[in-house]
Amino acid sequence: MTVNQILNTKGKQVFSVTSSITVYEAIKVMGEKNIGAVLIIENENLKGILSERDYARKVVLKGRSSLDTFVYEIMEDDLITVRPSDSIDYCMGLMSSKRIRHLPVVENNTVLGLISIGDVVNGIIEMQKETIDYLHTYISQ
C-alpha cells in the first residue's frame, strides 16, 4: 500500500494556517477541524507544521501564553515529507525513527495531503485483513 492509496481513502483535504497568526488561533482551527496538526503554508509553499505536541511542549509546559505566542515561534520547520509513491512501511519507519506523528505528502513542491500515524496503522490493518481473507480463501479451496 502506498501513501497515495491512503490519501485516496481518507481524502486529500489539507488544513493550513500562516506562521504570523497566534498559536491560539491555530489551535482553534485544529479544534474546529478535529485534527492533531496543521500545516503552515505561505504563498503556496510549505513552511512548517504545528502539532498538539508542539503546543503542549513549547507553550503549555514553558508557561507561555497561546494568545501571545506566534506560530512561527514554535512551529517545526525542519520538515520530513513523503511522496505519494512511498510505501506505508517506509512511512511507519520514518515515523518511528524520527518520533513524529504526521507526514506532509509533497510532490514537485506541491502539498498533496497530510497523513497521520493513525492513517498508516489503519492502512497496515487493512493490508493484514486482505492477507487473512486471501489465506482463508486459499485454505478452503
TrEMBL record:
Gene3D superfamilies: CBS-domain (3.10.580.10). Residues 8-66, 75-130 form the CBS domain. SUPFAM superfamilies: CBS-domain pair. Keywords: CBS domain. It holds the Pfam family CBS. InterPro entries: CBS_dom, CBS_dom_sf, CBSX3_CBS_dom, Diverse_CBS-Domain. PANTHER family: CBS DOMAIN-CONTAINING PROTEIN, CBS DOMAIN-CONTAINING PROTEIN CBSX3, MITOCHONDRIAL. This is CBS domain-containing protein.
